[in-house]
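pinned: reference chain
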Amino acid sequence: MKTIKVLGSGCKKCATTADLIASKAAELGIEVAIEKVTDMGAIMGYGVMSTPGVVINETVVHSGSVPSAQNISDWISA
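pinned: its structure tokens
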């Protein structure tokens, strides 16, 4: 199972990112655990300056926008 963190203040883009990841994982039949991180100190600890950010297994893979469905597929399939 992959652990995925969505970093952000809880804004609409952050919620959309989490929803896209969950739906793409379900579509691909891949089990993921999604955690929403809203603490700014924790977000800064990852070096993310603009949100939403996406962290998979403690590696930042994206920040600053809602990722594309193709990017999400690539990340969770790897």
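why pinned: The first strand starts at residue 2 and ends at 7. The CA atoms of residues 41 and 47 lie 10 Å apart.
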